[in-house]
Design goal:
The chain has five helices and seven strands.
């Protein structure tokens, strides 16, 4: 009989804990709270990162290196196979008057890929394009670009703004011109 009471007691405790967990889960679902996850902004290179050395090749085998960075440069990492990247490229083309004097466009692909070549040629109207591979030297030099599109504002060799779209935080603004750090988006 003592064994039966012990079994009943253990089952009661386990059932009570299960009920508490179910109620906590129901409360979380009802309030819409999700478990904490890393924000998309954390996939952007860190602000304040000093750009390192890199060497990529543009159309017609033109080299693009860290020496191509001007005092104020917009840098875009784009893929022709990515719809948000195509939208970002269209925004760059449409807002050419808002771009700094130097813009670099790193296009995911190679000069053997007609889609990448066409994309780079279009961007050539507003930027100096270069082809990159995933995890290439440019991605590492700019603080570990891991997601496309990534648009950066680099002033004096330092990342001062980062976004996944072409917006005011990375375009020519009075904040970027004065050297203060625009908001991260």
């Amino acid at each position: 009989m003592t064994l039966l009471w012990c079994v009943v007691l253990v089952l009661t405790v386990v059932s009570s804990l299960n009920l508490l967990l179910v109620l906590a889960l129901a409360r979380r679902v009802r309030t819409g709270a999700a478990p904490p996850v890393a924000a998309a902004a954390s996939l952007l290179p860190p602000l304040g990162h000093r750009v390192g050395a890199f060497h990529e090749t543009g159309p017609r085998d033109t080299p693009v290196t860290e020496l191509d960075l001007a005092e104020d440069t917009l840098v875009a990492f784009l893929s022709p196979a990515c719809d948000p990247c195509v939208e970002a490229a269209e925004t760059l083309l449409a807002r050419r008057d808002d771009l700094p004097a130097r813009t670099l466009a790193f296009v995911l692909g190679s000069d053997d890929d007609p889609r990448a070549v066409g994309f780079a040629d279009r961007l050539g109207a507003v930027a100096r394009p270069a082809f990159v591979a995933v995890g290439g030297t440019a991605a590492a030099a700019f603080g570990g670009v891991r997601e496309y599109p990534t648009v950066l504002r680099v002033v004096g060799g330092e990342v001062v703004a980062a976004s996944h779209e072409v917006d005011a935080s990375v375009l020519r603004t009075s904040d970027a011109s004065s050297g203060s750090h625009p908001a991260r988006r």
